Amino acid sequence: MAAKQSHRVGDHPLVKWTLIIVTLLLTSILLVVPLVGIFHQAFALGAAHYWASIADSYTLHAILLTLFVAALTVPLNLVFGIMLAWAVTRFQFPGRKLLMTLMDIPFAVSPVVAGLLYLLLYGRNGWIGSWLDEHSIQLMFAWPGIVMVTVFVTCPFVARELIPLMQQHGREEEEAAVILGASGWQVFRRVTFPNIKWALLYGVILTNARAVGEFGAVSVVSGSIRGETNTLPLHVQLLYQDESVAAFASASLLAGIALLTLIIKALVEWRQSRQDKLANAEPLVVADKVGS
Amino acid sequence: MSIRIENVAKRFGAFQALAPLSLDIGEGEMVGLLGPSGSGKTTLLRIIAGLEGADTGRIWFGSRDVSELHVRDRRVGFVFQHYALFKHMTVADNVAFGLEVLPRHERPSSAQIKQRVGDLLDMVQLNHLAQRFPAQLSGGQKQRVALARALATQPEVLLMDEPFGALDAKVRKELRQWLRQLHEELKFTSVFVTHDQDEALELSDQVVVMSHGRIEQVDEPAKLYASPQSRFVFDFLGHVNVFEGQSYRGRLNQGQAWIQLPEQHLDSGELYMRPHEMRVTANPTTIAHLPLKVMAVNPVGAEVRLELVPLGWETSSPWELGLSHHEYQRWSLKRGDQVYVEPSKAHFFSQHTAAPSEISWPCTSTAGVVEV
Amino acid sequence: MSSSVVNSNDMRRPRHKRVLPGLGLTLGTSVLFISLILLLPLSGLVMQTAEMGWERYWFVITDPQVVASYRLTLVSALWASLFNGVFGLLLAWVLVRYEFPGRRLLDALVDLPFALPTAVAGITLATLYSDEGWYGGWLSGELGIQVAYTPLGVVIAMAFTSIPFVVRTVQPVLEEMAVEEEEAGMTLGASDWTVFRRILLPSLWPALVTGAALSFTRSLGEFGAVIFIAGNMPYVSEVTSLMIFMRLQEFDFAAASAIASVVLGVSLLLLLLINIWQARFLRRFQGR
Hints:
The structure holds 3 protein chains of 3 kinds. By secondary structure, chain B is of the alpha+beta class.
């Protein structure tokens, strides 16, 4: 008698292992080797040289500027993302779909075009920029411009993580809380937030990763002045022209942030799936009898 | 606290969910809103709670007009159809929530809250599960947590949306009895929505039957079954056998079948008869000529149910008839046999009046028992 | 005279109170934010191009060098998204269907191109595929294939940055696919390949197209990853984003805006088509 086995397409060991090996091979060539390459290049002249490149005052300034930009961008987009997600998932109003489509636009826009949009408006010849210029306020080719385009490029991330989750979760728990007398803030803090915190964290690290690494849009509005408006990705580009090892040293910092992002993402997904599993678990059988 | 609903109407786009309707619910009463889906019963419940705003009309709790009051301030207890328990909180935290979000000057101390939660969980017999999460509970247990949570703030009005809808038949029956007891003890005014007629009839002091956004009838359960005021209520509650005919020579005729009608009621229309309001005869009687064929016999239960199809006339659905086991033995009916029936009582909806008139016939034949 | 006597109270339409709080605050903030950071700058671009006049606009956007960049960008993005359609499907399949050591690591690694800054990806790929690099040395030395500073380099950079799109759109669909449909196919005597082709692929198709389209859209605008490996030779390996960038370096804002408006128009059109396509297949497959 043949043992009963579930047979699905592609379960044959030959097919299975061929596909797995091909995938692993391609992934190694396309993703793993380049990743290793970054660190290999960075340390090509030894650890001492690596540290010297990082400790360079221009590099340090670029690191600080990059962190500063991210520190402004992330909270702004976090607040916006929560507001937008709450509005579109908890209410019906005319223009709701339009709002969600508009939110997606920064994803579709080329970073260079994004930078251009801001340069046109706030640059010296732009219709807001010329007014600002008269009042000696300079946004472009200065850090405010960098923050502005970074906010633009990263604004959909938090909302995009929250909307599907909040939609799927529905609004009943929140309605129940309101009936029980909870205020708006109490509803958010005690009922909504615990349910979305992991997605929120994921949205934040994605926003952060992109904010730290944005290149195209920032290169348009920054002017790349060393020690002033040079962010880490721009610094990498400048260095790459003549001292590529130093460029890779800076690049390895950015790659480190990317790896950290991937690790946090994996952890968050693991927590989220555990939470989902808990919420959909089979009830434990507990002896109890009603009305006896 | 009594509830008064005055001319409440609600429209969703082009759909009239509630026609203007009014309803009075007495203090301490348990009232069931019964109707098929789309009848507006859940909308009405949500309007009472304040979860939905009415387009027109007013809602009164006792002498207080709450129409303009936000849900948060209406202080009703509400049990959601799927319970809406906070999944990330323990059972105890769920029950405590309503107390913990009270403004500081009204909020009991944390020791008092703990005490009260313990009492509530005792009441719903779930104290041993206080530290569990909702996902670890069975449907019936979740239901009781939802109830304890709703009752924690001691609301004077308890509203429940399909409270037992998601439970299996056995648990449902147990919970019904239990809820009835709880209501006897605590005497809150309660309104619940259901599409299950047994549930409505068994639990309610008054049943409100709804269809298409209107109230069809409000009555005590027994009266509702005994004297429905419309075709809809007749159809919706229990089984009914319908005979549609034209008046002619003192009879209501259809094909080869007829039923004698009293002079004052003579008109074309429909006769509605409950299964227990008819009896089987071997031959046509002076009251009725209704030849039928036995399609199925179901002997399980307090009585034997016969399913009958007309011979030489028509009905929209097969007729049902109940026979005591004793009688059934005497008749020894089986599938395919031909029988006659006669009504003892019926409600007549004539084509000219909306309300039904009650008709009863004297028993003609006790001697009509003949072998078929 | 009206015959109906109605209590004035009943005529007053109660103000509809929303159950959940915060519509005004959240919607107001969202609309304000989107207007400021998105709509206002977009209107700036529209005004800039409107000032140009049609003739000059047409002259700028049909400049032969720019047209060559359109062709390179479109063709490269097409190849990159085709490659990702196949590779992404393979990755998603392996990740969902098989259990093997390192599966979770592979799953995490898929998102690397999203997490890695494009400039870093750019210099890394350029170095790897240059004649002195690990891949470039072998490819040009042994096979005579030149990657760096050619259109092929552009394709590779575009493919790299958009790998996750197809994987992440196909993966959930593949996960939710019921085993019964496959089993039904097999009980009817179909071979593995037939079941895949006739039953699985049609269900995956909408997600696959969506993923590939997203990948294509992203590739059209890609800048940081491309410019290092492309070498930026006029008429050969200049992408359109670079053309915009170069016009800006020359302070020719009008020309930059004109070319940008073409890119932006295509991107928005693609976004719209993807949205419509998704709405259609969601309705069909999920009865929404």
